[in-house]
Amino acid sequence: MQQLSVKHLLGIKGLTRPDIELIFETADTFKEVLNRPIKKVPSLRDITIANVFFENSTRTRLSFELAQKRLSADVINFSSSSSSVKKGETLLDTVNNILAMKVDMIVMRHSSPGSPHFLAKHISANIVNAGDGTHEHPTQALLDGFSIREKHGEVGGKKVAIIGDILHSRVALSNIFALQKLGAQVMVCGPVTLLPRYIRELGVQVELDVRKALQWCDVANVLRIQLERQQIKYFPSLREYSLYYGINKALLDSLDKEITIMHPGPINRGVELTSDAADSHHSIILNQVENGVAIRMAVLYLLAQSR
Amino acid sequence: MQKRLILDSRLLDIMISRLCQQLIENHHTFSESVMLGLQPRGIFLAERIRQRIKALTNIVVPLGYLDATFYRDDFRRRETPLKPNATRVPFIIENHNVVLIDDVLFTGRTVRAALDAMTAFGRPKKVELLVLIDRKYSRDLPIEPNYVGRHVNSILSQRILVEWKEQGAADDNIWLINP
């Protein structure tokens, strides 16, 4: 019987292609569960999960919490803004105190890249990385891959352009790993100041012209401009960014091809995507949100069996 | 390892006919009845039964596939991970007579989980259980079938192997395996 090759979900880099395919197959069955009159199964009823969020989050946290509740797990929530972290407690002390309350799994978001890897070396509970700084956001990449598979039948052979703030994005890195493992071709597109210097070494194509990127791809995964992570100005103004890299309905219509628009949210409407593009038939943004719950249920379910 | 053939395709065919006659006798026109095949192997028996009922009466009985993996009580207690199968119940079971169909009844735990899984789709009027093989004296729970293909006396260490053509076997065969 197939099982995950990992005990923790720290990043896509550590997963194999069969791992990703197993997660997708399991998510298929959970998607069916989510469309039932009673959307809940008792699989994780003896498991306690702590959602430990050292950084703000709306949809990822809600999506994880809903996934946990749909699986009947006991859930506790922690956010650093209202905790003893403000008093100077270390990450390990905080988590060890949570574990002393007999918690089985930790879902953690942290601003420091590598923090879940550090934690995995010191504690026995399963850890799910819900985003570590600008490093990885594995469940987002999984739900993105799953959404592409749902829309196009398969991910292998598809051309996916990741457009926007690649430099500050953990979604971009996890997406590149996931899409490549599944056999897709990946391009990154954005202002040269927002492209990591060594990005080509990951085997992706680089394009600076958004129109050319859209002409090339089947799927455009448009990323949010992360102003909160930018200590210096990487482009002159949001208005200029939207003029050169913003995607609108007129641009999509002028391409004369079917293209799928994705966005991990939250959208800066009018900056990276205009409303007429975000809400058009090209967009599968809300499908991504729906699939996020099924993917997170699958990850938690599979990790719970690998304990 | 020794294996003994307890049902071949000819006997199986006769047995399925007899089970269908019993279902027809109790459900008449099947106007308020539906069938649920239990994943993974109960669905093959359920499909055969549906086809045979159609051949005998020209009635197409609604048939769904039910997977009880998420409702099992041995999650994280088994050495091998539990991988779910697809559930497909494209009809209403509220106030309907449901026939659960599985190939082998052993401890009764799968049927217990299936009863839980079924209630996620509504509250049926009545539920019956049809199995091809009833392993006697091996029940952990007070669950008994309404329709039985064959009762088999077996000990815990023995195993029943069901081979269906639909799964790629050369012929339908049911074996009793001695370790």
From TrEMBL, chain A:
Q: Which UniProt keywords apply?
A: Pyrimidine biosynthesis, Transferase
Q: Which InterPro entries match?
A: Asp/Orn_carbamoyltranf_P-bd (IPR006132), Asp/Orn_carbamoylTrfase (IPR006130), Asp/Orn_carbamoylTrfase_sf (IPR036901), Asp_carbamoyltransf (IPR002082), Asp_carbamoyltransf_Asp/Orn-bd (IPR006131)
- Which Gene Ontology molecular function entries are recorded, alphabetically? amino acid binding; aspartate carbamoyltransferase activity
Encoding gene (name): pyrB
Task: Tell me the classification of the organism that encodes this protein.
Answer: Bacteria, Pseudomonadati, Bacteroidota, Cytophagia, Cytophagales
Protein name per its UniProtKB record: Aspartate carbamoyltransferase
The signal peptide annotation in the UniProt record is none
* Assembly: Heterododecamer (2C3:3R2) of six catalytic PyrB chains organized as two trimers (C3), and six regulatory PyrI chains organized as three dimers (R2).
- Which species is listed as the source? Rhodocytophaga rosea
GO biological process terms, semicolon-separated: 'de novo' pyrimidine nucleobase biosynthetic process; 'de novo' UMP biosynthetic process; amino acid metabolic process
TrEMBL record, chain B:
Q: Which residues form the Phosphoribosyltransferase domain?
A: 9-153
Name of the protein in question: Bifunctional pyr operon transcriptional regulator/uracil phosphoribosyltransferase PyrR
Gene3D superfamilies tied to this protein:
3.40.50.2020
Q: Does the keyword Glycosyltransferase apply?
A: yes
Q: Which NCBIfam families does the UniProt record give?
A: PRK05205.1-5
Q: Which SUPFAM superfamilies match?
A: PRTase-like (SSF53271)
Q: Does the keyword Transferase apply?
A: yes
EC class, as a word, reads transferase
Q: Which InterPro entries match?
A: PRTase-like (IPR029057), PRTase_dom (IPR000836), PyrR_bifunctional (IPR050137)
GO MF annotation terms: uracil phosphoribosyltransferase activity
| Keywords of this entry | Glycosyltransferase, Transferase
Q: What is its EC number?
A: 2.4.2.9
**Matches recorded under CDD domains:** PRTases_typeI (cd06223)
What is the native source organism of this protein? Rhodocytophaga rosea
